[in-house]
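Sequence and fold:
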Amino acid sequence: MLGDYPLKGRRASEIAAHIEQGVSSGQLAPGTPLPPLRDLAVELGVNPNTVAAAYRLLRDRGVIETAGRKGSRILPRPALTPRDQIRVPVPERARDLSTGNPDPALLPDLAPALAAAVARTGPVLYGQSRIDPGLLELARSSFEADGLPGGPIAVASGALDTIERTLGAWLRPGDAVAVEDPGWGSLLDLLPAMGLRPLPVRLDDEGPLPEALAAALTDGARAVVVTSRAQNPTGAALGEARAAALRAVLAEHPGVLLIEDDHGHGMVDQPYRPLVGAGPRHWAVVRSAAKAYGPDLRVSVMVGDEETVGRVAGRLRLGAGWVSHLLQRTVAELWRADAAPAASVAAAYRERRDALLAELAARGIEAHGASGLNVWVPVPDETSALAALVQRGWVAAPGARYRIQSPPGLRFTVAGLDRAGARDLANDLAAVLGTGGADTRLV
């Protein structure tokens, strides 16, 4: 019934698997409409309820979306095709600024911390505490120092893992989540994979726009994910006035789940501006070790209200059980010795961002990068700009990885870019974009 891809199956699981296979192979393109339930039931000789169950399975897996009388269609970017597959090949001798990685030279040496973690205590056995006491103490002190309400703490395997577990604790397939646009591509992939619907929230250099967040909440968002600082891809960081305005919006929606992603903790010098306590009864603040200490340290800590953290910890206990205490102790060792190094790392990243932003501004090119590792440059056309930059020896991350409805742009990871490199990149961008750069705005 779909051109050259006839659908098959007698059971709901078989029909769903066959459609998913077609999406994965590329035979069913994004946006392809699916047959009405009754038409497909007649074609396959099955009960319409069987087809309805198959479509429900596909929706829950983030493969299709349903729009009532408008029918069902393959998602524009189904969960089977993650955004990080949108890549530009890196030619030999080109500078790859697309990765989002921290500078390896600014990451700590793990060997002493690992050795200390091994020596500090004996083997961890079943039935022992799931959180290392040293990490728990450091996390609690950190959260309290930033003015967060007291609450239980849990440990998971990275920021995205924590966010997924927190969303799964309260939401069900079909629920909507307010997310930044442009925003973290992995999160934008995760939502449809969980059967959740992203509602885009525009932002500027100080974070989500209050009126855009209010609109998403009015449209039915059951959860909100906000990046406190080092926002990916734009580098936005909440200022106090913006945080206060967002708290006022959230106060009107006590039933929404609020998740604050503070993955920049430990490698930025902007103060943390909490949103929790403004109204939502259920909340979580997440901090991970990836950017400050290395992406392979799959450790994150979260604080939240008692019921949310209880649900997350309980579900973790039934699956993975706990995060390796060896990793937890290693992070604790690094965190304990990190006050002075963290300040120097944050200063180094700021210097590299500011160097590129200044060079771009001198050439009339709009760019954004208030904090973190990345600079966002709006462009009129991503494809042509990417191709022209590659010819000049630069590879950027295409904005399509991060956008829902926001205008096109390119993301440049500046973690390893020195001042001379910033000047060369700005010259090449000016040549690619023409006089004045792109006449477009972040929002």
